[in-house]
Design goal:
Layout lengths: L2 H18 L6 E6 L3 E7 L17 E2 L2 E4 L2 E4 H6 L8 E2 L13 H9 L3 E4 L5 E4 L5 E3 H20 L5 E6 L5 H13 L3 E7 H11 L8 E8 L4 E12 L6 E13 L4 H20 L7 H20 L2 E10 L2 E8 H7 L3 H16 L6 E7 L6 H11 L4 E2 L7 H14 L7 E4 L6 E6 L7 E7 L8 E6 L5 E6 L11 E8 L1 H10 L2 E12 L5 E12 L4 H9 L11 H23 E3 L1 E5 L8 H43 L5 H4 L3 H21 L5 H59 L7 H26 L11 H19 L13 H7 L6 H10 L1
Bound molecules: 2-acetamido-2-deoxy-beta-D-glucopyranose (5 copies).
One 2-acetamido-2-deoxy-beta-D-glucopyranose binds next to α19 and α20.
């Protein structure tokens, strides 16, 4: 199915939902990559598609940069990297959750010209050339809030909830970093979804499956890494509703965290560096701008080599005023990447092994991710799985974000989409470690959530303890070189009191239970710790049971339904009572000894920082606007004053007025020249106002002269219409009186209008006379605004009388005289009915 018709189908789903639901919140999905950000918005009435940036591009470069004071995003930011190599920040995904001293940070410094520094959380911050430091989370948050704004412009409303894709191998540290950035951006994490899983959701959206599972590998070659996810698709039936749905199970994944498009760029850049050094005998590696230019060039040459056997690289003035020129062949490039060949294929084998399946079980290997287009990568995968298994049936760039959006839609339950249920799994073993109670020097390790545990899993651990103790959740194997092992420590508090309490009440061998949870977004935590002990039957619970159990028989059958309800309540309270008595909740205090998420205060501080920056940018923009407006106004005034005697401006102004204005104008021009750059928005507007006050009366005269004929015409029109009406109406009233029939108007009505008309005439004639004697450069004697208002008043008076309904003529002419007398000259409907009642 082509992506176009696919999109049409999806639009249909969302619109369908809109019929049933009103006032829905929008859901934003973001595929945050090392090179590109793709986003999508789910909102009823808005066609479901990838979000376009302000240049109508379907993807946004993952870069944030500063050009002096101006902050830029996307390609604007990436394009200035060679001019401001220290102020352009890309490939931030490598730094998410990474400890400052980890290998991945060293790798980052080999591909980036940005300066890094260590945060007080021992993670990475990036440093602008002016010394301003931003944590990785803050920079990612800036990009997310940029995307949020794009989405809000499209949605026409606030967008608060987001689904973000993450690589399946992301550890808790990296997931924390993602979630922190989301929060700093002012968004709420609806879910994190593994990117391979998101592609699977997108794949399932337009396909149907049988009850026999079908296995596929989602092979995702991105910029920073390559991963393979084994998934099964099958049709299933909801046991309760009997509705059928699609079940997606993630069975395993394999990955190489350092093999991807960026590594290819790096190899290519090194070819260019070697070529430069051998030709020019200068070390370009010491030149930040030169390195930034070569980095960009490497990406360009890589793209050319995807379709050609050689490419010409040319960079003007790359460094030391040297214009660089070199020919790179595909063979040369592929030789430099030879060692990567097996690394591109390996994740597939690892994923299959992890899923305990073999290639024979797999229907297809679905290629996705930007680097899956590179011939070298495709060749590696083909060699590993056979050409006939390769499937190019999803959009390599967009399937992850579209899948994430659909997943978000299904979570928010506000959209009616195809029912797809997803079970994802944990990629790293997680163990619980705690000191033995009898020999507190011995640490016990329990594999509480082994690799492959399902997202959403809960494991309850039972301990025999009398004293408070703590459980540490940690990775038994290093998730990444230089990353901590310990995730968190959960201190369980209040045990002696709780155990004492339970024992006192007759509990035998009370224990401590703590539940370890793996959330749907792949976070582990400790929840619901409690002291638990079964209390013997002769205890209070036993006695209570005797009191209530079987008591239903003795309840008099007064009102059956109400009694039934009461019994139910008793059942409930009895159960609650029994439960309360055998288990006592305990307090859990979570401590991060290694690297936890940012604390609430730090996140708030970051959010305030970003907001302050946003506000600063807005106020800078307003100042800029005020400055430009004033400047434009000064030019306009100067032209008006210079334009000679025949212009309306000159005709409508007096010499002294022009002199004053001219003086003030010169002053303001001088002021703008001297202080314009430092003046604030308010001062700039005030300067403009100061001149406007002098200009306004002149402009007003001109406008009044222009508007006068029309206003006079309008006044005369109502003057004339009213006179015409009065003449006719008086004739008709007279005729009615002669005929003995009721009239629409009394003579008082008509006299009232006559008076209003005469007043209007007097005022108008007087005004027109005075206006005739007024010079063009004097203020008008009569304002057109007042002319219109008075004409309107007269018109309304007239219309009131014109619209009055004609009185009903009685059907029985004999009594008509009497009836019309009683219902007066202005019969209403009720008056009429009363007349009939009397008959
Ligand atoms: C995978 O293939 C093997 C060999 O053909 C077969 O024995 C096994 O049942 C298959 N596994 C599944 C889950 O289909
Ligand atoms: C301990 O038991 C008493 C009753 O025996 C009860 O009132 C109290 O709330 C209990 N304390 C806790 C912490 O449950
Ligand atoms: C006044 O209005 C009438 C009709 O609206 C129009 O024919 C006439 O030209 C107008 N006269 C002036 C002076 O605007
Ligand atoms: C208004 O109408 C009266 C009579 O119709 C006329 O005498 C008078 O000049 C008119 N006034 C103006 C300002 O046209
Ligand atoms: C006066 O009466 C005539 C004839 O019935 C009618 O056409 C005309 O509209 C009436 N005029 C007014 C102002 O009501």
């Amino acid at each position: 199915m082509s992506s176009l018709s696919l999109r049409r189908v999806l639009t249909l789903f969302v619109l369908f939902a809109a019929v049933f639901e009103t006032s829905l919140a929008s859901v934003l999905a973001v595929d945050y990559g090392s090179d590109w950000i793709k986003a999508s918005l789910m909102k009823p009435g808005v066609p479901f598609d990838v979000l376009l940036n302000k240049d109508s591009k379907r993807k946004i470069q993952s870069t944030v940069a500063w050009k002096k004071e101006e902050r830029l995003f996307g390609s604007d930011a990436a394009n200035i990297a060679s001019r401001f190599p220290q102020d352009s920040f890309s490939s931030l995904k490598y730094l998410q959750g990474a400890p400052f001293n980890s290998d991945i940070v060293t790798y980052f410094t080999s591909i980036s010209t940005a300066q890094i520094s260590e945060t007080d959380r021992k993670t990475v911050a990036l440093k602008q050339s002016d010394g301003t430091e931003w944590s990785t989370e803050e920079l990612v948050a800036m990009q997310l809030s940029y995307v949020k704004k794009l989405a809000e412009d499209l949605a026409g409303e606030q967008v608060n909830e987001v689904v973000l894709t993450v690589p399946p191998y992301f550890s808790q540290f990296e997931r924390d970093s993602v979630a922190d950035a989301i929060e700093i951006a002012g968004l709420k994490t609806l879910a994190l979804i593994n990117d391979g899983t998101a592609v699977a959701v997108n794949y399932a959206m337009t396909r149907t499956f049988s009850t026999t599972p079908e296995y596929h590998v989602i092979y995702d070659a991105g910029a920073s890494s390559t991963r393979a996810t084994v998934v099964s698709f099958s049709a299933a039936e909801d046991p309760k509703t009997k509705a059928s749905y699609t079940q997606i199970n993630v069975l395993g994944a394999g990955y190489d965290r350092n093999t991807g498009g960026t590594e290819l760029d790096l190899r290519l850049r090194d070819i260019l560096i070697d070529s430069f050094i051998s030709k020019h005998r200068r070390d370009i590696r010491k030149d930040n701008r030169g390195m930034a230019k070569l980095w960009k060039e490497a990406g360009r040459v890589k793209t050319i080599l995807s379709a050609n056997s050689d490419a010409m690289s040319t960079v003007e003035s790359v460094a030391f005023d040297i214009d660089f020129k070199a020919k790179v062949t595909r063979t040369q490039f592929e030789n430099a990447c030879k060692d990567l060949h097996p690394r591109f294929a390996r994740p597939i084998h690892d994923a299959l092994a992890n899923a305990e399946l073999s290639l024979g079980n797999i229907s297809s290997v679905i290629l996705t991710g930007g680097s899956s287009r590179t011939p070298m990568v495709q060749a590696a995968v083909k060699a590993a799985v056979g050409e006939d298994r390769i499937a190019l049936n999803v959009n390599a760039d967009e399937s992850a974000v579209l899948g994430a959006a659909l997943y978000g839609a299904s979570l928010s339950r506000q959209f009616k989409t195809k029912d797809i249920r997803v079970t994802d799994v944990l990629m790293h073993d997680v163990q619980a470690s705690y000191l033995a109670s009898n020999t507190p020097t011995r640490t016990i390790h329990t594999a509480v959530l082994p690799r492959g545990s399902k997202h959403g899993a809960r494991k309850t651990l039972t301990f025999k303890r009398q004293e408070d103790f703590s459980v540490v959740l940690n990775y038994p194997n290093e998730v990444m070189s230089g990353f901590p092992r310990e995730i968190l420590e959960a201190n369980i508090i209040g045990i002696p009191e709780a155990i004492g309490n339970l024992t006192e009440r007759g509990a035998i061998d009370p224990v401590i239970k703590a539940t370890v949870v793996l959330s749907e977004s792949g976070f582990v935590s400790v929840r619901d710790a409690l002291a638990y002990g079964e209390i013997k039957d002769d205890s209070i619970t036993g006695k209570l049971k005797g009191l209530f159990g079987g008591g239903g028989d003795q309840v008099p059958e007064t009102d059956f339904e109400e009694e039934a309800e009461k019994n139910e309540k008793k059942e409930k309270s009895k159960k609650a009572l029994a439960k309360d008595q055998s288990s006592i909740p305990l307090e859990i205090e979570i401590v991060y000894n290694a690297q936890g998420p940012m604390n609430a205060a730090a996140k708030r501080a970051s959010r305030d920082r970003l907001r302050a920056l946003d506000n600063l940018e807005v106020s800078r923009q307003l100042r800029e606007e005020a400055h430009n407006t004033l400047e434009g106004y000064l030019y306009k005034l100067r032209d008006l004053l210079d334009d000679g005697p025949e212009t309306p401006f000159t005709k409508c102004s007096q010499h002294s007025e022009r002199q004053t204005l001219s003086k003030k104008l010169s002053e303001t021009i001088a002021w703008l020249h001297d202080e314009g750059e430092t003046a604030d928005t308010m001062q700039l507007w005030e300067k403009r106002t100061g001149l406007e006050i002098l200009e306004k009366p002149i402009v007003h005269r001109y406008k009044e002269i222009e508007a006068f004929p029309q206003a006079l015409n309008n006044s005369q029109k109502w003057n004339w219409s009213t006179r015409l009406f009065l003449t006719e109406a008086r004739e008709n009233v007279t005729a009615d009186a002669i005929a003995g029939v009721p009239s629409k108007w009394t003579s008082e009505d008509l006299d009232g209008l006559e008076k209003a008309l005469q007043e209007h005439e007097v005022w108008l004639n007087n005004g027109v006379e005075r206006q005739k004697r007024t010079k063009m450069n004097e203020d008008p004697a009569i304002e057109t605004k007042e002319m219109r208002e008075r004409a309107k008043t007269l018109e309304q008076h007239l219309q009131r009388l014109v619209r009055r309904k004609a009185p009903k003529v009685k059907k029985t002419p004999a009594k008509s005289g009497e009836a019309s007398g009683s219902s007066s000259a202005e019969p209403t409907e009720t008056g009429d009915r009363q007349g009939h009642d009397e008959l």
